[in-house]
Amino acid sequence: xxxxxxxxxxxxxxxxxxxxxxxxxxxxxxxxxxxxxxxxxxxxxxxxxxxxxxxxxxxxxxxxxxxxxxxxxxxxxxxxxxxxxxxxxxxxxxxxxx
Length: 98
Known about the structure:
The longest helix has 11 residues, at 87-97. Strands 1-3-2 form a three-stranded antiparallel beta sheet, with helices on one face. The chain has a two-stranded antiparallel ribbon with strand order 4-5. The protein is an alpha+beta fold. Strand 4 (46-48) and strand 5 (57-59) form a beta hairpin. It has helices at residues 8-16, 32-41, 87-97; strands spanning 3-4, 20-22, 27-29, 46-48, 57-59, 74-76, 82-84. The mean pLDDT is 86.
C-alpha cells in the first residue's frame, strides 16, 4: 500500500527524506520511523481556517473532525486496480462520516 504522487519534485523530496519511492509507478511508501519523525514535528493543536471565520475549527486533542468532500475522482480497489468514482462510492463514504 502506498500513495501515488504525480509530481516529480514531490517524489524527489520524499525520496531524499527517507520514503521508498517507486519512480515507475509513482507510488511512495512511508517507513514507520519516517512517519513517527514527521508526527513528532507537527504541532499538537492548530487552527483550521475557513473562508468564513465563523466556520474556523480549532483542531486539538479530544476532538475529531472528518469530512468527505465528494470529489474523489478515482477509487483504488483492494487488488490495486483503480476506476472512476461513482455516486454510490460517495454514498458509501458518507456512511463513514455519519
